[in-house]
Amino acid sequence: MIYLFILFISLSSCTVAHQQNSISRNEPCKRVVLYYHDILFGGNDTANATSARATNGTGLGKFVLGMLVVFDDPITKDQHLHSTPVARAQGFYFYDMKTTYNAWFTYTLVFNSTEYKGTMNIMGADMMMEKTRDLSVVGGTGDFFMARGIATFQTDEVEGFKYFRLKMDIKLYECS
Questions:
Q1: What is the pLDDT of residues 146-161, one digit of tens each?
Q2: What is each CA distance from 17 to 5, 101, 104, in whole angstroms?
Q3: Quick count: other Cβ atoms within 10 Å of Cβ 107?
Q4: Going from the N-terminus, what domains does the chain have, and what CATH number goes with each?
């Protein structure tokens, strides 16, 4: 009988602990809206460029399959490229489909502003033809220590291959 009592108490404790540590999928514990600005180096704009091709496309299909771009892009709180950056996005993306424009991103947001300190790591598929797409927030440091959540991308501006701006609606569901 005493063994059943101990088993009951143990199972009850595990259930309560699990309920207290569960992640709310309804309400984020932190939400940040930021704008990502990418200016691709075109051969003569070294002063303004924030990204550069590390490899060219393969020639398979007409959607630059295989092109790899490395970047150090400014992140602002508004749509203006020349606003004071609140972070830098440092990482790469590559085009991974030959039938449409699609890229795979992996980068770190490096914050060093009065509002936030630390890093946030984001990765996933950017299906560019979709109005919105979700990438995973897979960790971080400082104010974003061990963060988990979703960064919803929305294309805000495109100027050919030279410049694009993304609106990032970042919702964290696991915060420190």
A1: 999 999 999 999 998 8
A2: 18, 45, 37
A3: 21
A4: 23-174 (2.40.480.10)
